[in-house]
Amino acid sequence: MLPSLIQPCSWTLLLLLMSNLFLWEKVSSVPINASEAVLSDLKDLFDNATVLSGEMAKLGVSMRKEFFMNSFSSDKFNKIILDLHKSTEKITQAFNSCHTVPINVPETVEDVRKTSFEDFLKMVLHTLLAWKEPLKHLVTELSALPECPYRILSKAKAIEAKNKDLLEYIIRIISIVNPAIKENEDYPTWSDLDSLKAADKETQFFALYMFSFCLRLDLETIDFLVNFLKCLLLYDDVCYSEF
Ligand SMILES: *[C@@H]1O[C@H](CO)[C@@H](O)[C@H](O)[C@H]1NC(C)=O
Ligand SMILES: *[C@@H]1O[C@H](CO)[C@@H](O)[C@H](O)[C@H]1NC(C)=O
Question: Which end of the chain has fewer CB atoms within 10 angstroms, the N or the C?
Fold first, then answer.
């Protein structure tokens, strides 16, 4: 499925469905082999991780909105979106140009069912790692633009900081679940720095457009995945029944 460039993607709906699950009774075994004490530690870590991922997803949406509404960028962003929407092909191309596309988060029910707890954890780890450097550059480049409003810069800074915090929680969770998963495993690298720094405003704002687009999508995906993992940990198979 192809999320539109402005509508929140379908993960949001799944998240809503999922939140109902947390009201249910604990039903069955967990997807990993761990003692009650370890499970309780994991639950605490996931409690904090889901708070962070929720805040990040909200910030991703509000930063994107701000780019569209603030006079700093609104003309350029609206021109880009009109241009992109002239053809489905262009939208697809834009969507597929996000640097995290190779992480291959499952999009169908079948693929979700085939993906293990550990593989979902790796997807979250790789996505967070893949955004660490780009977010640092975003903050630097926005800070260097004197006309960049605080409302945008502050959100970029908050996302960067929370990305690091969430990464720490995920690394702690991984060290419990399977220490063999390494932090330095391959993750997609971002290569749009030249455009983000470009003196040519058209190029620079197109880079900001794509950055905020891909980031918002990924933050929603991360939020979904972290909540889904927490669900799997607490309720196991029931989590799949919502699909
Ligand atoms: C879970 O771990 C315990 C203790 O380490 C072990 O005895 C048991 O065989 C394990 N169960 C599974 C299903 O791996
Ligand atoms: C979760 O966050 C709270 C508040 O920041 C903190 O006190 C607590 O230690 C965190 N839990 C874990 C497991 O890190």
Answer: N
